[in-house]
Amino acid sequence: MHHERRSTYELFSIPYGRVCLKLGLTPNVLTVVGLLIAGGAGIAFWKGHFLLGPMLMLAAALADMLDGATARAGNLGTVFGGVFDHSIDRVGEFVILLGIGVSGHVAPGWAMFALFGMWSSSYTRAAAESIGGLKTCAVGFAGRLEKFVLIIVGSFLEEFYPGIAMEAALIVVGAMSMVTAGQRLAYAHRELSRKDSSAS
């Protein structure tokens, strides 16, 4: 499941977080850097640069990985830092998909579908953890990394299959995200029902 894959990648990334600490970089600074790069990716897509766009997406994903790795490596994680990171991630997703949607290479509706799906799965997890009090609801078919990889692959293939590859990637991302949201709702229902039964 997504949670197990994420745990493995978090453990793998800690040495890179130590490097960032030696360079004097903080998690919040890296979060902002990732947002700026995501903004650059959105502009690149808007201008029709479907090779530069995914390259900047990769850089933004790297910054996103490093902010968490730096927080874990230096024991710098805070509640606000987590809120800040997740909030900025949503803004980054928006500007990237906005750029794709207004590029003229895809029907804007598919970009909105992918964005809605990604936000739905993220919101379901956030609600389960904040309102439901679950320790984690990072379960499901696909996480943010997998969706970014699909968009990046679709972007590169758009150069060879214009008008097809990117739209196909967005449709798959949107569908995967909706399935993930459903899985998280089911998981939250099961875990919260279990908690209610134990409390009664």
Q: What would you give as the CATH superfamily?
A: CDP-alcohol phosphotransferase transmembrane (TM) domain
Question: What is the 3D shape?
Answer: flat
Task: Tell me what portion of residues adopts beta-strand conformation.
Answer: under 5%
Task: Just give the CATH class.
Answer: Mainly Alpha
CATH architecture: Up-down Bundle
Tell me the total number of β-strands: 0
| Main sheet record | none
* Rg over CA atoms: 18 Å
Helix percent reads over 70%
CATH topology: Four Helix Bundle (Hemerythrin (Met), subunit A)
Residue windows where pLDDT falls under 50 for at least 5 positions: none
Order of helices and strands: HHHHHHH
Q: How does the helix and strand content classify structurally?
A: mainly alpha
> On the 0-100 scale, what is the average pLDDT?
89
What is the domain tally?
1
What is the terminal-to-terminal distance?
Answer: 31 Å
SS element count, helices:
7
